[in-house]
Amino acid sequence: MPEILLEARKLSFTYPGEDGESPPALEGIDLKVAAGEYVALIGPNGSGKSTLLKLFNALLLPTAGEVFFDGRSTADARNIPYIRACCGMIFQNPDNQIVGATVEEDVAFALENQALPPPEIRRRVSEALELLGISHLAASPPHLLSGGEKQKVALAGVLAAASRCLLLDEPTAMLDPAGQAAVLETLQMLNRQRGITLVHVTHFPEEAALAHRVLVLHGGRLVKEGPPAEVLADLPLLRALGLKSTAAAELAWLLREDGFPLPRGIVHNRELVEQLCSYARRI
Amino acid sequence: MFIRTEDLTYTYFPGTPFAVEVLRGVNLSIARGSFTVLLGPSGSGKSTLLQHFNGLLQPSGGRVYVDGEPLGYSRRELLQLRQKVGLVFQEPESQFFAETLFDEVAFAPRNFGLSPAAVDKRVQRALQLVGLDDAAFLAKSPFRLSAGQQRLAAIASVLAMQPQALILDEPTAGLDQAAQDRLFALLQELNREQGITVIVVTHRLEQVVPLAHHFLVMVEGRIIMEGSAAEIFSRPDVLERCGLALPPATRLMQELAAAGLPFSTAIFSLEEARAEINAWRERRAQR
Amino acid sequence: MRSITLGRYLPGSSFLHRLNPRFKLLLLLIALAVIFVLKTYAGFSLLFLLLALAAAAVRLPLRLLAGMLRPIAYIVLITAIIYFFFTKGGVVLLRLGPLTVEQAGLSAGFLVIMRLLGLVFMSMLLTLTTTPLDLAQGVAYFLRPLGRLGLPAAELAMIMTIAMRFIPVVSEESQRLLRAQMARGADFGGGFFSRARKFAPLVVPLFIGAFRRADELALAMEARGYRIGARRTRLREEPVTAADWGALLLALAALAAVIYFRL
What is the DSSP letter of B201? Predict the structure, then answer.
């Protein structure tokens, strides 16, 4: 049994409504995320994805049920510094999460909050900048960077803080294809080489396909979870929720509808390539 | 040609140490009634270029022509131009200020001095086009609409000028799949049914490619490629070097072709891919 | 973005860049004292010679300097006119109908303009050679004793830092909004009152955007472990060097000299 890092038990959350009768943003969520796992969270706008992320690092507290990080409840205020130190968060708009006036000052921010000694901060900051390949930007003011670079700065900040877990709220939504590719590559590297647990909210099926497990939220409820091959191949469910799957999954589905003998569970391009090649060899 | 530029250049902060040459000689033509997609990595000058089409920016060098006329930059000329060429900025809902959806959409027609009755008509028409014409919406605060509805309302507020061309800068950013589908359906209708010239900056190729007639690729302030989807996406090497992506269906077909399967790579949508693969299967079955 | 150059940091490694920001603030304070004590042409000539040398050491481009002085040109002009025409005494130098420019007015006006220019020039040297964050930290250092009186010194410093970090962001945002509303036919020309009325479409979204931004930033800061009142360390604890003390002593000596020699 792998170590469980994040856990939600019978979790419900309702935003304090102005008219008192706002519907719950999340209802009855039971969920476990193992250390080192890469989980993607998909669902239409307003399905509760961002809310769930904020509950995971105690930016919001459950209205009912409980959330645990590393076995510690977010409801206990004494656990919060520990949870925030271990659990980094990246937001959609890179402009609104950068605090520092220069890149290195921003990367140092979380470490300064942990009151680490300055030499230790400097060492960790330069290590993180190097790992993400942005050492040359150390002294740059953030507003002169591209979107992709800004997200890398945010990721470096999390990395420098030695976080074990990273909560990502559509981190590529405002980036161009090159920026998107750079951020995704960095995420994969952090997960594989550093064993950092990722919870990644995304609108892009291609991004969800990179995860070990995909969770589908709809109307505040967890309606499906499983490996990408299972969730992203479930076209009827995705379509009913107004979602799309990857190009390979969509095409495989269309071809199967036309009577093409393809197995279920095709999500990645290479899987479709393999299947069509083996078909070509057989027939 | 509806919009044309001649050696258009633009420099931010000219004459200071911070001077940046953003446009470096742009020559392009956009046909009336066409659907044009402007591609380019971030920082390539796309947004700066778009703002020249309705006179928000004045060229540092070169010329812009709209409807055959070189642009003039007097107040009167600009006001006329902005009715002709509507520009929808990135995240246009961030410009909302009015208390009701009606007032928000009426902002532009009122600025052009139309009578209350004419304004009313324009607002109704614009909201009808974007599908927000339910009477319940009119008195609603634009801030209380859903994200997708806000985007549509912002587009309606530009459509209320009844422009001949509509320019949109990354109109789907931040929207979920359903809202994106709706938005592209709207652009298709505006272009095909209403005859509006559409120019759009977007990275959502799988949705936009089937609608578009014409592509422009901009890199470092210059148009480096233009043409049909077939012409643009047959050069994946160039696109990749510029940090641009292929439509997912095209990429898939290229991977299949690279694996030795006899597929055309001039395929830009899943439906085309489906037809290509089915045709191949039938050919094999007949043998 | 006309005043883009005002309050902007110019990356570099001159001796002014390397001085400790706390000492730079002290130096500015002393220099201000010098300016207000100075009253002879010779004294000002010496001061501006020194400032010119400092500008050269910082490698301040002349164009940048001109750009920075442009916004205050009006203030200088108006001040000059007021002093020239309304301070009376001494020989009448010029007569324009009922108005006269007299000796006392000329020298008083000259003195004020010199002080104004010196003040602006020196503040610019400070902001050009010190990052906003360093500046905020420097100010925070001097606020620290007030912490004992219950003033949230560290939080004030954080507020200053963030305000400075977001100046370029908000200025870009306001440009964008201005153009977005112009694209919808808004016309921001015309007289002052008609303009003020037309600014709702600009000011309302700017405020809404600022609040949303502040909200998100607060969340991001909280997520990164920032807690009000908690102890923090700094990436760079600015070291105090011999050069800092040297510069401070020189400045004090200069102040003493100006007073002693009645420059």
Answer: E
- Separation of alpha carbons B178 and A240, rounded Å: 10
Cβ distance of A111 and C235 shorter than 8 Å: yes
In a domain, B108, yes or no: no
Q: Is the distance from CB of A167 to CB of A88 less than 8 angstroms?
A: yes
Quick one: B88 and B172 in the same domain?
yes
Is the CB of B18 inside 8 Å of chain C's CB atoms?
A: yes
Q: Which is nearest to A97 in space by CA: A174, A41, A205, A36?
A: A174
Burial per residue of A129-167, b for 16 or more beta-carbon CB atoms within 10 angstroms, e otherwise = bebbebbebbebbbbebbbbbbbbbbbbbbbbbbbbbbb
Q: Per-residue confidence of chain A (283 residues) as pLDDT tens digits?
A: 579 999 999 999 999 876 656 788 999 999 999 999 999 999 998 899 999 999 999 999 999 999 999 999 999 999 999 999 899 999 988 888 888 878 998 999 999 999 999 999 999 999 999 988 899 999 888 888 888 899 999 999 988 887 899 999 999 988 889 889 999 999 999 999 999 999 999 999 999 999 999 999 999 999 999 999 999 999 999 999 999 999 999 999 999 999 999 999 999 999 999 999 999 998 7
Tell whether B186 and B273 lie within a shared domain: no
Q: How far apart are the first and last CA of chain A?
A: 44
CB contacts of A46 in chain B (<8 Å) are 146-147
Say if residue B236 is in the same domain as residue B254. Answer: no
Could you tell me the two tokens for B244? 């641009």
For the sheet containing B165-169, what is the strand order? B85-88, B165-169, B197-201, B35-39, B214-219, B222-227
Domain of B220 in residue numbering reads as: 3-92+163-243
Distance separating alpha carbons of residues B211 and B166, to the nearest angstrom: 15
Q: Are residues B170 and B275 in the same domain?
A: no
Q: Do A101 and C131 touch (CB under 8 A)?
A: yes
Q: How far is A132 from chain C (nearest CA, A)?
A: 19
B235 and B284 housed in the same domain: no
Q: Is B66 helix (H, G, I), strand (E, B) or coil?
A: strand
Same domain flag for B69 and B25: yes
Is B232 inside a domain boundary?
yes
Contact predicate A27/A221, CB 8 Å: yes
A-chain residues near C225 (CB < 8 A):
81, 84-85, 110, 113-114, 161
DSSP chain A: -PPEEEEEEEEEE----SSS-PPPSEEEEEEEEETT-EEEEE--TTSSHHHHHHHHTTSS--SEEEEEETTEETTSGGGHHHHHHHEEEE-S-GGGT--SSSHHHHHHHHHHHTT--HHHHHHHHHHHHHHTT-GGGTTS-GGGS-HHHHHHHHHHHHHHTT-SEEEEESTTTTS-HHHHHHHHHHHHHHHHHH--EEEEE-S-HHHHTTSSEEEEEETTEEEEEE-HHHHTT-HHHHHHTT----HHHHHHHHHHHTT----S---SHHHHHHHHHHHHHH-
In a domain, B88, yes or no: yes
CATH (domain of B217): 3.40.50.300
CA distance C126 to chain B (A): 19
Contact with chain A for residue B240, Cβ under 8 A: no
Q: Which amino acid is at C34?
A: V
DSSP one-letter code for B71: P
Residues B217, B252: one domain?
no
The count of C-alpha atoms lying within 13 angstroms of the C-alpha of B143, restricted to the half-sphere facing its C-beta, is: 11
> What is the pTM assigned to this prediction?
0.83
Pairing of strands A165-169, A197-201: parallel
Residue B102 is assigned to a structural domain of this protein: no
ipTM of the complex: 0.89
Determine the Cα–Cα distance for residues B145 and B98; give it in Å rounded to an integer: 13
Q: How many distinct structural domains can be found in chain B?
A: 2
B79 shares its domain with B171: yes
